[in-house]
């Protein structure tokens, strides 16, 4: 019991948000008379929140370094407009337009990163200027009108599913993917546990370890079973999974990830320790620009149009997801997984409140209150540890 208490205290924010997500889902499952967890709605949840989750992955790195990016919604809109011009007006192949759009996003990130890292203008000011600049450029490029439709192949980024084989109304490929992910997770956890023991690190008891494996395996297979009973695994879910795995690995297992955390924890100390703080800041914003471009492409594909108002408030949802998921406003703390959990909390709240018929006024108010409580909880825990 002591081990469980210690484990929970050391990870209170992460576990707390997971518990909160489960409670919110169960609450809306009851309030919507079972609509929330229906296969079609679970799929819609993934499709509706994918572009915010992509932004949250990039935003959590920015917040960990102690900065903020207010321009990501405008960048997403601008990149979507550029992609529409290339694909619809110029008739360029979709793959070429996608690559060019990602380069545009990276260049925008480099532009902002230069002012923040090397000229030392606060990120709030630079990205606020970027929000206005790229929103204006979006309207100029689109001439105040929407451009559509996109090629069918491009639309499948957001609306397509992995090829599946149906058997008794179930997608076999989706079920097999669930089993494969479970095996991969168990093998990875066993290796990690063996490595920790080899080097003398403290590990949780065998009972808790087995319970963790069973819970994760059950949730994974239940999730893929639900997807298999509707249309299978969405293409966008595959992209999200790859991004989560890659960025989690970078942040937890690479020198670059350690440097990002060190920079956010104490920039001067990181610089004295040999971290090239300006370079790290620059590349974090290049990365943010690229992921904003990915988000813009996903949203444009889902909407099947580039519109002047695309991306509105995306930055606020992404920032809220990071803070709800455990990132600290003072920098140095946060995880990719936490940002995803925070994004899902926001997504389930939006979806659940819409299903029960709450107006947009109530939805905005409740989301604002959730954000405030999440940050207050973080500050309370910090003060408690400091005492």
UniProtKB/TrEMBL annotation:
Q: Which residues cross the membrane?
A: 15-36, 42-63, 94-114, 121-142, 167-187, 208-227, 233-250, 282-303, 318-349
Where found in the cell?
Cell membrane
What is the protein's known function?
A: Part of the binding-protein-dependent transport system for D-xylose. Probably responsible for the translocation of the substrate across the membrane.
Q: Which InterPro entries match?
A: ABC_transp_permease (IPR001851)
Tell me the GO molecular function terms. Answer: transmembrane transporter activity
Keywords (alphabetical) are:
Cell inner membrane, Cell membrane, Membrane, Sugar transport, Transmembrane, Transmembrane helix, Transport
Main localisation, per the record?
Answer: membrane
Any single Pfam family the record assigns to this protein: BPD_transp_2
Q: Does the keyword Cell membrane apply?
A: yes
May I have one GO cellular component term? plasma membrane
* Domain of life (superkingdom): Bacteria
Question: Which species is this record about?
Answer: Paenibacillus polysaccharolyticus
Protein name (record): Xylose transport system permease protein XylH
Q: How does it sit in the membrane?
A: Multi-pass membrane protein
